[in-house]
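Researcher: Re-running this chain for the archive, since the previous output was lost when a drive failed. Same request as before.
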Amino acid sequence: MSRKFTIDPLKPFFIFDTPGEWHATVLNSSIFDVRGDYIGFVRGETFDVYTQVGEWIGNLYQDGRIIRHDE
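Model: Regenerated structure tokens:
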């Protein structure tokens, strides 16, 4: 299964947990929580997700979940 997808910068992209509850929204490359507070950003072709202070969290997948593969 290919992970290639794009996020339209002119439309919101919603982030969900595994059970399907909405937790955040991506606008351009910024991430905002459900209250509208800035909480992080997305960078790169693999959609790396970072906190507002630059800590890597994981990768954003097409289904709206952030997945972290620890090695």
